TrEMBL record:
Residues 1-22 are annotated as: Disordered. This is Trafficking protein particle complex subunit 13. It holds the Pfam family TRAPPC13_M. The gene is LOC103643403. Residues 219-340 form the Trafficking protein particle complex subunit 13 middle domain.
Amino acid sequence: MASPYAGGVQPPSPAGAVQQQQQNHSLAFRVMRLSRPSLQPDLAALLRFDPRDVFLPEDALTGSDPSAAAKFLHGLLHPADSATAVPGDFTFRDRFLLRDPADALALPGLLVLPQSFGAIYLGETFCSYISINNSSSFEARDVVIKAEIQTERQRILLLDTSKSPVESIRSGGRYDFIVEHDVKELGAHTLVCTALYNDGDGERKYLPQFFKFSVSNPLSVRTKVRTIKDITYLEACIENHTKSNLYMDQVDFEPAQQWSATRLEADEHPSTVKSAIGDLCKQPILIRAGGGIYNYLYQLRSSSDEAGQTKSEGSSILGKFQITWRTNLGEPGRLQTQNIHSTPTASKDVNLRAVKVPPIIYVERAFMVNLCLTNQTDKTVGPFEVFLAPSMSGEDRAVLVNGPQKLVGTFTCMLFYACRGMRLD
């Protein structure tokens, strides 16, 4: 459906305005935006009720003794005298004034056309219905029409009839066409419509018209990055800035080459039955209009064979989001975020971690621990000396029995606890 452009016609410069006023143009552009209609609720429908509702309190059917309410309803709907019986059930569909089930939605069944040009958001497809009208008493011939979008960065040609001009537009007639543009930039946009034609006197005239509009951001993506040992957690909060609900078709995180990503979701309720039908009927993710938010959590792991490779230049890039959505009436939108960077962490030359620790350790009894020492630099380092750091209390809680004092790679040590409370880090 078309809604008229409300931005007005603005000339490119004062000199061009004077020149345009001096020329009596036969043609004029009219720009309308093609958009889908909206649903208009009928507030009066919300007040419709069945007169029989007033006989029972609100919690009669959900109270501790529903049988009493059922008996009352049965007597109300089926009186003893069959001649005056009122057939039917006390159900939602068969209410006295709710003959149409759509009445419960407060929708009259009519669609409302847009009354204004409306807001244009990044990631949407701008579709415009343009009509060039001949309001003079003469015929315009050999009409060359061009339409383009101008932004701060580029100019995009949408229509050009130079190779096949419109032969003529008669007096009182018009020529209509539709242009589409995928909006990929924020800020001011200008739709430039030009016509080059021969008027009734055979004079070649040039008509430019400019229609300005602004593109806003439909949503914002705020991210938080936390690193715990070798695992990186990425939290993304998506906020809806539009005036309509957004149904998220796809929110995918595309990790960088050296990362692998897994989305973390809350466990489903045990009563949820997993089946093919359940997947088809899965509730869509809805982000409500005017500031609604939805959070996503991803677990990232380095896919490099060597941990040292993640310290190379450019490894701070984690990846980017691909987001697609639909509005109430199915209009699509798509956005791609910029690269998300990890939080800078202090780089260590070597990393020592426990590979295998016995599940049960007894006091004053030796046990074996497998440790792994990793070189995270691009040069050879070593040899190393392994020892246990003293505890904060100054009391020795563990004793290193044996194990090589100078080593490189994976090794095994024998330890035993001198007392309780020791933690192996």
